Amino acid sequence: MGPGPSDVNPRVTNAMGASTIGHLDPAFVTLMDEIKQLLQYAFKTRNRATIPISAPGSAGMEACFVNLVEPGDKVIVCQNGVFGGRMKENVERCGATAILVQDAWGEAVDPNKVEEALQSNPDAKMLAFVHAETSTGACSDVRLLTSLAHKFGCLSLVDSVTGLAGVELDVDGWEVDAIYSGTQKCLSCPPGLSPISFGPRAVEVIKNRKTKVQSWFLDMQLMMAYWDGDASRTYHHTAPVNNMYGLHEALVILQEEGLENSWARHALNHNALAAGVEAMGLQFVVSKEARLPQLNSITVPEGVKESAVRARLLEDFNLEIGAGLGALAGKVWRIGLMGHGSSKTNVLRCLGALDAVLSDMKAPINSGQAVAAAMAVYR
Amino acid sequence: MGPGPSDVNPRVTNAMGASTIGHLDPAFVTLMDEIKQLLQYAFKTRNRATIPISAPGSAGMEACFVNLVEPGDKVIVCQNGVFGGRMKENVERCGATAILVQDAWGEAVDPNKVEEALQSNPDAKMLAFVHAETSTGACSDVRLLTSLAHKFGCLSLVDSVTGLAGVELDVDGWEVDAIYSGTQKCLSCPPGLSPISFGPRAVEVIKNRKTKVQSWFLDMQLMMAYWDGDASRTYHHTAPVNNMYGLHEALVILQEEGLENSWARHALNHNALAAGVEAMGLQFVVSKEARLPQLNSITVPEGVKESAVRARLLEDFNLEIGAGLGALAGKVWRIGLMGHGSSKTNVLRCLGALDAVLSDMKAPINSGQAVAAAMAVYR
Q1: Considering only CB atoms, which chain B residues are within 8 Å of A7?
Q2: What is the pLDDT of residue B232?
Q3: Which residues of A touch B217 (CB under 8 A)?
Q4: Backbone angles phi, psi at A100, to 5 degrees
Q5: Per-residue confidence at B233, pLDDT binned at 50, 70, 90?
Q6: DSSP per residue over A217-275, as a string?
Q7: Where are the domains of chain A?
């Protein structure tokens, strides 16, 4: 129950354990085609350029930047946590300029500040922001921010590593131009792949580049010759075959449940956890309206050593929760309720364990209230 | 029995199916430390910067180039197959100049040509070449080429994606400066990770860079803060946890067998396959002294449609062998005898199936001789 990797459904690990076949085997090509369709379902898009990158989410981020940005470009980057900072690094390593729009850690991206930045930088090519900030638990308004980008002739690039399948996302309906995610959050696969999708405007930008993409491994045009060729695919790199088995199974599970049902389940379990947390007298970092259901940042109460609590949860309860990152290091816990891990059992188990450990440490909480408060939400 | 991914030992897929734990879990940190030690054993090195990159071999190649090369540098690249060409692409995408040393597909890199190129380019920073060319089956002399590079003040960068664990390799003994490999060849893991190692000269070059590494994801200094920190590791990207379980188990299997025993097994099975192939009257692409035991390129006999043979082997015998790439497309088959797949059973099964399919197609071969010739080698 950390910030990811999340708990994996045994169906997914079983699928990953199947025999490794060749990455050009006809059966594998069929699997690739199904993965593309299933990812289109999860992203709510018909974008043809919808594939999993053969590396974790950070490589998906990099794939978006290196394909869309050229030296000398200007990109507006919203920073309200760790991953906005990583976006800035990516922009600069492409030889481009990043204009930062900063919000406090734990707050959603402020559309007013974004509009100002777009106005002041008419030569900007792209607006990049994080949908679901894993470092804080804040959810930003993808639809609104994308429409602002378009109003000023910019592409929108969205980090939805933690968002996909856990909270509403509609790539085509919201006209998102480029998006990347990860497998190890609300899809509940082991980490190692990064689903991405490029819309028609982004594909045009890639086709009309003046310079070669600086990464051979992440060059989208080379990748698409493998992922989207005719019957005979052009070998690019060797796909992580068994990870693809796992992703396929995870996406089948998502489709069985239904995307909207998955969002609703994440919301319900968050509501129950929040009721328990608040019954204990603990505070969320993020205000209610901007809170992600799948990533719950909770302020560590006065006088409690946060790492000691995590260590006891792991040792005594076999339960992992996350530490704070960056500006929130030492100040918060991050409790994940992602994908397969977003369940009533996990909510109650986590609240019970946290209550027990904090009570035992004589922390200033209302002991013994949390589990009952959460159970009331489920009734 | 293609050019990789190779057959995976069930112990490895079983290991990969274990529960996904956090990438900062103390138990995972212990696993990472063991993987580093086991990779040092496999590479025969004490290099501290010996880790698996969280993506396939092509990303390992890119990690070496983007960390060691800066814009304006000059790199001598030896090209005797597909992967030398990919190296050239990598050099150029780093803003550097590639000086090509070309040999025919199927031949080893010619040390005389390399020495000439080093002499004519005193400003070259690095010599890059492929140890085990997967596209042809040719083995080049890593020790000799590295010593030539050093004679002219250059670093040596070695692609041993297919070499590691299948044929002699001694990173420290041969003073190799940088090397990358893949998990899906002679280590017999599913694809998805790329073991790399940087020696002291390469580490110095990285430390003294004037520019930032163009890839954030592959920046070695950032990666080492995660892989080689103190008790508290700095989060970089989310490691592909289950792939690491698999790599760990594959390396334990290698250590149980013994590295030198693994090389000897690969040689023996190659000798048996070669005896069978030659008894059929078929020809190897690569001359005997430069032949890799783990990748056997065989010329398609006159009048035989190579893809039809592969299709029948796959459909009727559930046996994959590889097609030719690039200059050898349509002209050769590539038979892998890698890692777990390098076994007497596989050699005999492959020869029997190939003999049967070619005989049935009335190809010009000596039918019915191959299996007996191979069995004689094992006696």
Answers
A1: 19-20
A2: 66
A3: 55, 58-59, 61-62
A4: -90, 135
A5: confident
A6: TT-HHHHHHHHS-SSSPPP-S---HHHHHHHHHHHHHHHHH-HHHHHHHHHHHHHHHHH
A7: 10-256, 259-378
Name the CATH topology of A259-378.
Answer: Aspartate Aminotransferase, domain 1 (3.90.1150)
Decide: residue B360, CB within 10 A, 0-12 exposed, 13-18 middle, 19+ buried: exposed
The CATH number, out of the four listed (3.40.640.10, 3.30.70.330, 3.40.50.10800, 3.30.310.70), of the domain defined by the range B10-256: 3.40.640.10
Q: Which two tokens stand for residue B286?
A: 């690569």
The pLDDT of residue B348 is 98
CA distance A307 to A323: 7
Give me chain A's average pLDDT, please: 96
Fold: same for A10-256 and A259-378:
no
- pLDDT the model gives residue A232: 66
Q: Which B positions 235-274 lie with beta carbon below 8 A of chain A?
A: 235-243, 246
Best probe of the A interface among B7, B30, B242, B312, by most A CBs < 10 A, is B242
| B149 close to B118: Cβ distance less than 8 angstroms | yes
Q: B30 touching A, CB under 8 A?
A: no
Name the residue facing B62 among A6, A89, A216 (closest C-beta). Answer: A216
Whether the CB of A30 is below 8 Å from some CB of chain B: the reply is no
Tell me: the pLDDT tens digits for A4-51?
999 999 999 999 999 999 888 889 999 999 999 999 999 999 999 999
In this predicted model, what pLDDT tens digit does every residue of A104-153 receive, in sequence order? 999 999 999 999 999 999 999 999 999 999 999 999 999 999 999 999 99
**Angle at Cα B141 formed by Cα B140 and Cα B143, nearest 5°?**
145
pLDDT digit string, tens, across residues A212-231: 999 999 999 999 999 987 66
Question: What confidence score (pLDDT) does residue B23 get?
Answer: 87
Chain A within 8 Å of B7 (Cβ-Cβ)?
Answer: yes
B212 touches chain A (CB under 8 A): yes
The answer to whether A8 contacts B19, with C-beta atoms less than 8 Å apart, is yes
Q: Report A:124-153 residues touching B (Cβ under 8 A).
A: none
